Amino acid sequence: MKLYFSPGACSLSPHIVLLEAGLAFTSERVDLGTKRTAGGADFRSINPNGYVPALELEEGVVLTEGPAIVQYLADSAPQAGLLAAVGSVERYQALSWLNYISTELHKNFSPLFKPDSTDDMRERARKMLALRFDYVARHLDGREFLAGSQFGVADAYLFTVLGWTDFLKFSLADWPQLQAFRARVAQRPAVQQALREEGLVK
Length: 202
What we know:
Blueprint lengths: L1 E4 L6 H10 L4 E6 L4 E2 L16 E3 L5 E3 L1 H11 L12 H25 L5 H22 L12 H16 L7 H11 L2 H9 L5
Parallel strand pairs: 1-2
Antiparallel strand pairs: 1-4, 2-3, 4-5
Helix pairs in contact: 1-2, 1-5, 1-7, 3-4, 3-5, 4-6, 5-6
């Protein structure tokens, strides 16, 4: 398997899951501005949408969209316990969180990254994110992880998107549960390795 990534982007989530699962893989960095891979290929020939993550499988199949990729990876290494069994309520709780993070958190960050967003658009996005942070923080109050008693795919995704607040200077001071979650997950060896491999920490 080969993971196409950009440092700190949403591809960090499957990067963490790959390491947590103990799966063999290679990785290649993508310049999202030029749409070129580190090897010089046109990334759009791999993922026509031009964004990461993309996971190239040995059979030549390419998976895109982070939530789908992490489900595939978790199911490829069930012994790692990153996603509950098919048919269990716990699995669908985890999938609910993956969808929530994708649609309610990830998407609401978009205006904050786009240079053509107006001040009004950015302020509206911050207010929307604050409401959603309230919801996630309430859920995490008294819990270590989003779904179940151990680290899972939804936690990797939440950790990734919360990391964008540093770049955007969006303080999480009003949500100590989110700060504690980030600190807790950041200590995991696989997370530290992923951050080092992407050049985000030394």
